[in-house]
TrEMBL record:
Name of the protein this chain belongs to: DUF1428 domain-containing protein
UniProt cross-references to InterPro entries, sorted A to Z: Dimeric_a/b-barrel, DUF1428
Organism of derivation: Chelativorans intermedius
Length: 117
């Protein structure tokens, strides 16, 4: 079974195009190093729930949108190798991300795939 990294971030709507530009670069790098899929999805139907919701998870503000993204790998071992290479890649070493969204509010994790169809 494959392995998946999942991410959830709040991005100011004014920074959405800058985020997409950086995401395209990041996706290119991840794919070059062996990721099977790289997806960045902009919230379209993500209401602010009374108790839990995507916006609540990242403390999204009125002027922000939620980005839900995931990266698929062949295995956990492949993921660990790819991540090490991605993190060392000079194309992703700048501070540009810090000006586009607040990384302190990012939710992320690695997941073993239980069902794949």
């Amino acid at each position: 079974m494959s392995y998946v990294d999942g991410f959830l971030v709040a991005v100011p709507k004014a920074n959405l195009e800058a985020y997409k530009k950086m995401a395209r670069l990041a996706g290119t790098v991840w794919k070059e190093y062996g990721a099977l899929a790289y997806v960045e999805a902009v919230g379209d139907d993500v209401p602010y729930g009374e108790l839990t919701s995507f916006p609540r998870a990242v403390l999204a503000k009125e002027d922000e949108t939620v980005i839900f993204s995931w990266i698929v790998y062949e295995s956990r071992k492949a993921r660990d190798e790819i991540i090490a290479r991605v993190m060392a890649d000079p194309r992703l070493q700048g501070d540009e991300w810090k000006s586009v969204f607040d990384g302190k509010r990012m939710v992320f994790g690695g997941f073993e795939v239980a069902v794949e169809m």
